[in-house]
From TrEMBL:
UniProt entry keywords in alphabetical sequence: Coiled coil, Membrane, Transmembrane, Transmembrane helix
Transmembrane regions listed in the UniProt entry: 33-54, 66-85, 97-114, 126-146, 167-185, 223-244, 250-270
Matches recorded under SMART domains: GGDEF
NCBIfam families, per the entry: GGDEF
SUPFAM superfamilies registered for this protein in UniProt: Nucleotide cyclase (SSF55073)
Name listed for the protein in its UniProt record: diguanylate cyclase
CDD domains assigned to the protein according to its UniProt record, in alphabetical order: GGDEF (cd01949)
Segments forming domain GGDEF: 347-478
Gene Ontology molecular function: any one: diguanylate cyclase activity
Keyword Transmembrane helix attached: yes
GO biological process, alphabetically ordered: cell adhesion involved in single-species biofilm formation; negative regulation of bacterial-type flagellum-dependent cell motility
GO CC terms in record: plasma membrane
């Protein structure tokens, strides 16, 4: 395998002509490809416009009033629906871009509705019917440009979002545009083609400016990419309307391009509605993945912390707070585990029962604090005298037990003797006090002295009390 792979390695490195690693090069190529695909997608209507411009038969027309009325009615209702969804997003996020987009959709719907409603006037006053189209596109293009200019601005305060008055003012303004267009359609200036062309050309220029600014500001969030493609479609639709004559194929194509852009933008709005209710803070897949990784790392570290805390709590719950030795509960668990191990064929274990001699008189003579210090030192000395895996437990006031896994009684006796000697030769210190103490120890072995925990501990206890009765400071193992 290596012989085959080896020549490929320098080849892969040679791919890197600009000092980029191969993965960066591939990334650059794929990102460029995606940009080209998006640009191609946005500009696809241009090829249709060019096709009709060069090959359209000027005699061909499709003048169908009912169809036009239905199409514009659908567009108007869709416009009002999108206005509502965009407004809901704005109410939630307060994003100024969404405020202006809501106004753009609302203005478009209120003006464009008359383009459909006045279809019947096409034969009497064509301008009354036609002019509402460019007027609605111009108004929407303007408001979408302002929307882009407000991209990334601070969200509006909640009380501002809920005010109805500004919305009513804007509705009034849009209705005024309706009236102005009707007046223009009845005035002599309407015969000047510059009127319609300036409105449509204005919409085209503003859409082009909008896309240029988007590209210059390098705004690449997923919804703003949709915004850019849609605005490009609006601009191209205006271009097609400029080149069209009412009812010819270019004219219908212009409607279709505009509708495509409109529905694409409405898709973006609904995406925002279902996610962050915002156009600027919706995340790309990469950002989401990075955030997910961050959150996962945070959760994992919190889990580790929780585990550490749980272990600490478990340790605390199983430990005697004064001496740090295991408590009775933990000791019993450990002995039971040993019993199971022995039952599975393991070597026997032994236990030692230890009781400090005449501890009451230490307390009486030196005080309780000194007694406490003696107990602490006693545990330390025991731990030092036994093996690391043997455990010391405090099972009563000055009563302790030591578990000696895999230890027969004779070995337990030797260990107990070592503990006894260490304690008897220790100088216990507490403040300025120095004192000595002794310990009595009883030992028992699993199997030999019983198989159940109660039996084994009882025998150890019995021997401990024999040690006491025989004069203390001694070990009894049989
Ligand atoms: N300082 C201190 N003393 C304790 C603690 N727990 C129990 N004691 C004392 O330990 C003493 C145990 O005394 P006894 O059970 O009479 O036995 P002893 O004096 O050790 O005599 P023998 O066991 O017969 O050798 C009592 O005085 C208890 O108050 C503790 O946590 N700290």
């Amino acid at each position: 395998m290596n012989a085959i792979l080896a020549p490929n390695v320098p080849f892969a490195v040679r791919l890197d002509t600009n000092g980029r690693s191969p993965t960066q090069a591939i990334r650059f190529v794929t990102e460029s490809y995606v940009r080209m695909v998006l640009a191609g997608f946005a500009l696809a209507p241009a090829s249709l416009i060019a096709y009709l411009f060069f090959f359209q038969n000027p005699a061909l027309k499709f003048e169908h009033h009912a169809f036009h009325i239905v199409a514009i009615a659908v567009a108007t209702w869709a416009g009002l629906f999108v206005t509502y969804v965009t407004w809901r997003c704005y109410r939630a996020s307060g994003e100024p871009l969404l405020r202006w987009m809501t106004l753009g959709f609302l203005g478009f719907a209120l003006i464009y509705a008359l383009h459909g409603a006045f279809t019947g006037f096409a034969d009497h006053n064509i301008w009354l019917f036609i002019l509402y189209g460019p007027a609605s596109r111009l108004v929407m293009a303007l408001l979408l440009l302002v929307a882009l200019l407000s991209y990334g601005s601070t969200p509006d305060a909640v009380d501002r979002r809920t005010k109805t008055r500004p919305w009513l003012t804007w509705i009034g303004l849009f209705l005024l545009v309706d009236v102005v267009v009707a007046a223009a359609a009845h005035s002599p200036i309407v015969s000047n083609p510059a009127l319609r062309l300036s409105m449509e050309g204005g919409a085209l220029a503003i859409s082009a400016l909008n896309v240029t600014m988007l590209l210059l500001r390098r705004i690449r969030s997923p919804l703003m990419v949709i915004f850019a493609i849609s605005v490009t479609a609006f601009g191209l639709a205006s271009l097609a309307f400029i080149l069209a004559r009412p009812w010819n194929h270019m004219w219908w194509l212009a409607h279709a391009i505009f509708a495509a852009g409109f529905f694409l933008l409405s898709y973006g709005v609904v995406q925002a509605f279902h996610t962050t209710k915002s156009f600027s803070t919706i995340y790309s897949q990469e950002e989401l993945m990075a955030r997910l990784a961050d959150e996962t790392a945070r959760t994992e570290s919190a889990l580790r912390e929780l585990q550490r805390t749980n272990q600490m709590l478990e340790q605390l719950a199983a430990t005697d707070p004064l001496t740090g030795a295991s408590n009775r509960r933990r000791f019993v668990e450990q002995v039971e585990a040993e019993i199971h191990r022995v039952k599975r064929g393991g070597a026997p274990f032994s236990v030692l029962a230890l009781d400090l001699d005449k501890f009451k008189s230490i307390n009486d003579r030196y005080g309780h604090q000194v007694g406490d210090d003696v107990l602490k030192t006693f545990v330390k000395k025991c731990v030092a005298a036994i093996r690391p895996f043997d455990g010391v437990a405090r099972v009563g006031g000055e009563e302790f037990m030591i578990l000696l896994p895999q230890t027969a009684l004779e070995a337990a006796r030797i260990i107990a003797e070592r503990v006894r000697t260490v304690i008897a030769t220790t100088s216990f210190e507490s403040g300025t006090q120095r004192l000595t103490a002794t310990v009595s120890i009883g030992a028992s072995q699993s199997g030999l002295d019983g198989d159940a925990i109660d039996e084994i501990l009882r025998v150890a206890d019995k021997r401990l009390y024999s040690a006491k009765h025989q004069g203390r400071n001694r070990v009894i193992a049989a």
